[in-house]
Amino acid sequence: MGILRPRSIPVLLGVGFAAVGVPLMAALGLAAYQVGELAHQSRAAVHQAVRVVQGSRLLREELTSMERAARQHRVLGDPGLLAAYREARARLREAADGLARALPAAERERLLGPLLAEEAALSRAVLAGGPGPDEAALARRFADLHARAAALLEAGHRLVDRETAALTAAAEDTRRLLFLLAVSLVPLSLASAGVFGWLILRPLRALERAIHRLGEGGFEAPVAVEGPEDIRRLGERLEWLRRRQLELEAAKARFLGHLSHELKTPLATVREAGELLHDEVVGPLNPRQAEIVEILRASSRELQRAIENLLGFATADPRRLVLRREPVALDALVRAVVANHKPVLLGRGIEVEAALEPVRVTGDPERLRAAVDNLVSNAVKFSPRGGTIRIGLAADTARGRAVLEVADSGPGIPPEERERVFDPFYQGGARAEGYVVKGSGLGLSIVRECAEAHGGSVAVLDSERGARLRLELPLAAAGGAREAAPTGEARCAG
Fold first, then answer.
1. Does the residue 151 lie in any domain?
2. Are 488 and 325 in contact, with CB atoms under 8 Å apart?
């Protein structure tokens, strides 16, 4: 198993923590060792310096005691003073032994050795019996010993200064070492954390993108997620889900295609019968019969339109259909669509208030007609008897857009449904005032697909009553002629 391709996210996290934590722990261990060594050196240096200074002072004190006892013995001749001399000399030798262990070898040979040799010679003269050295010689020789002891004390002070300087240098070296460790390890730790964070987040983000793409309906591209084994397994499950969704989409398209074809055959018979009655082939009609026949013809046209929407949606090529683009008088197209709905409008007593400016766009006339027809059909379906439909068309030259608004006096579209109403097959629940309108759920989806295919948009706007939808399309270029070849593509069913 490679470090960059671990079996799971927990293993990758463990490796990442180890990569970040081990250098830090090593640095902390080294820092603790250096600080411990520095503390040990400082304790040893302080102890040595204290022993040298204390030994030197004790040496001077015992020399003073020995000098006092020697001088008094020379004057008084008391044997007890020699015993005091011997005791002071024993203490001096004991202090000299401790001082010899504390002094560096060079200082011991240069200062302590001559002092002890001189003291031994003097003590032999004092303790040999007889008068011994005279007063002047005794004073001179003890003065020389005191000078040597003072030199030892001065050496002890110098030793303290040297050890202090050495400790200061060691502390500075330790500080520099810790600083270098911090300067080198902090970027290293951040880089390690960044690398392993990227290794962890990269497959998760790929997984997130795949889920988002599937949620948006992008089932064409295979799902391939690299990374730890558990993340790859999730990617494989998503790929299975994508293939399953494609199978379901194909099954749904086949079902809708079969259903649409099955419905179109009897519908053609119904429409033909309606036309025969309207043309009075079977005999003249009275006004009441003519009204019923007109309702039959209008309803059959509505049913045919719904079946064509279903068939068009079922057979639409996912790679998108090629549009036939040419200049279109959108105001004339809207009037033609409203005229096609006139029988239903008259039958239900619905008024249409239209304010249409002359507007020209470039697009596929049939597909633009389908978009406008579905907008008007939606308004007719949801308008109550005796209601009003308001249609406005204007050119927004500042933005280069044609703006078509269709508003009805029905129950309206709740805010939470304003985005979902453009999804295929989505239908809202029970409406206010007892309206429960059933349909294929494709009308507004077709409007949106046609609008986006032409570079436009459709949206639900706020309205005091009813639903208000706005369709925007790019205006035709001034003096634009019909294009010689298709230039746009859309998954737009007419």
1. yes
2. yes
Beta bridge partners of 360: 329
The residues near 395 (Cβ < 8 Å, ≥ 6 apart) are 357, 359, 401, 402, 403, 475
d(CA 233, CA 237): 6
Radius of gyration of the chain (CA): 54
The backbone torsions φ and ψ at residue 226, rounded to the nearest 5 degrees and listed phi first, read -95, 155
If asked whether residues 371 and 469 sit together in one domain, one would say: yes
Mean pLDDT of 152-160: 76
| CA separation for the pair 171, 166 (Å, rounded) | 9
Same domain, 162 and 242: no
Phi-psi label, residue 148: left if phi above 0, alpha if psi -120 to 50, beta otherwise? alpha
Q: Which residue has the higher pLDDT, 487 or 75?
A: 75
193 in Cβ contact with 23 (< 8 Å): no
Please tell me whether residue 474 adopts helix, strand or coil conformation. Answer: strand
Amino acid in position 371: A
Domain span at residue 16 reads 9-198
- Which two structure tokens, joined as six digits, stand for 341? 């709905």
Give me the residue label for tokens 């043309």.
279
Nearest to 309 by CA among 256, 267, 258, 251: 256
Residue 483 lies in a domain: yes
Which of 182, 198, 214 is the last residue in one of the domains?
198
Q: Residue 279 burial (CB < 10 Å; 0-12/13-18/19+)?
A: exposed
Structure tokens that stand for 130 in this block = 């007889």
Across residues 183-198, what is the average pLDDT? 71
CB 16 within 8 A of CB 190: no
**288 and 324 share a domain?**
no
Residues 88, 158 within the same domain: yes
**Residue with structure tokens 């005791």?**
87
Q: Which residues pair with 391 in a beta bridge?
A: 354, 406
Burial of 329 by CB count in 10 Å (0-12 exposed, 13-18 middle, 19+ buried)?
Answer: middle
**68 sits in which H/E element:** helix 9-76
List the CATH number of the domain containing 30: 1.20.120.1730
Percentage above 70 pLDDT, the chain: 77
Domain assignment of residue 217, yes or no: no
Is the domain of 416 the same as that of 288?
Answer: no
Domain count for the chain, please give it: 3
- For the segment 135-140, the average pLDDT, to the nearest whole number, is 80
Residue 96 lies in a domain: yes
pTM: 0.45
3-class DSSP state of 172: helix
Q: What is the mean pLDDT of residues 334-361?
A: 87
Last residue of some domain: 251, 269, 299?
299
Q: Do residues 184 and 39 share a domain?
A: yes
Are 273 and 416 in the same domain? Answer: no
pLDDT score of 90 more than 80: yes
How many CB atoms sit inside 10 A of residue 1's CB?
A: 8
